[in-house]
Amino acid sequence: PIVVDALRNEGFEVYDFKNPPNETGFAWKEIGLEHSNPRHGDPYAPDLSVRAEFLSALNHPRSVAGFASDFTAMQRADAIITVAPCGKSAHLELGWGAGAGKDTAVLLDDPCTPELMYLMTDHLATDIASLVTWLDDALPARAVA
User: Fold this and answer.
1) What is the DSSP letter of 29?
2) In whole angstroms, what is the distance from residue 80 CA to residue 74 CA?
3) Distance, first Cα to last Cα, the chain
4) Phi, psi (degrees; rounded to nearest 5) at 106
5) Sign of the CA dihedral with 73 first, then 79, 80, and 83 last
């Protein structure tokens, strides 16, 4: 929320996947997908669910609608920004953005998790100010996902 607010205060149009326009952000619990963190207390431990239940949940109308909302925003965006730490979806979105020719950046946390593939991004920001400076230089229009 801090990054979304900062970018909006700088005049950027920002799609916030947690609070998309005219709806609520998607959460697996909405559709009853049971998942658990096997290493409680570890913020980086993956949530796990039964494979068959997950595959079924992907076809739920709410999952399809959540994906459509996020992916449409990605297609419209001039830039894809990933805010670390983040999960698999954010990394898939960043990779898609790089492959689609979008301007891409990662706002690194400190300490950060080293990631070799971040070399495919256009910018690695160490703070919000450096992200804003890069966006001001990179974007002809202000639309960020």
Assistant:
1) G
2) 7
3) 13
4) -125, 130
5) negative
Q: Cα 131 from chain centroid?
A: 15
- 54-94 pLDDT, tens digit per residue, is 999 999 999 999 999 999 999 999 999 999 998 889 999 99
Mean pLDDT score across all residues of the chain: 88
- Burial code (b: 16+ CB inside 10 Å, e: under 16) for 5-42 equals eebeebebebbbbeebeeeeebebeeeebeeeeeeeee
Diameter over CA atoms, the chain: 46
| Burial class of residue 73 in the structure, from the number of CB atoms within 10 Å of its CB (0-12 exposed, 13-18 middle, 19+ buried) | buried
Q: Say if residues 53 and 34 touch (Cβ distance below 8 Å).
A: yes
- DSSP-derived letter for residue 26 is P
Question: How do residues 15-41 score in pLDDT, each as one tens digit?
Answer: 988 888 877 778 888 888 877 666 566
Q: What H or E segment, with its residue span, contains residue 105?
A: strand 103-107
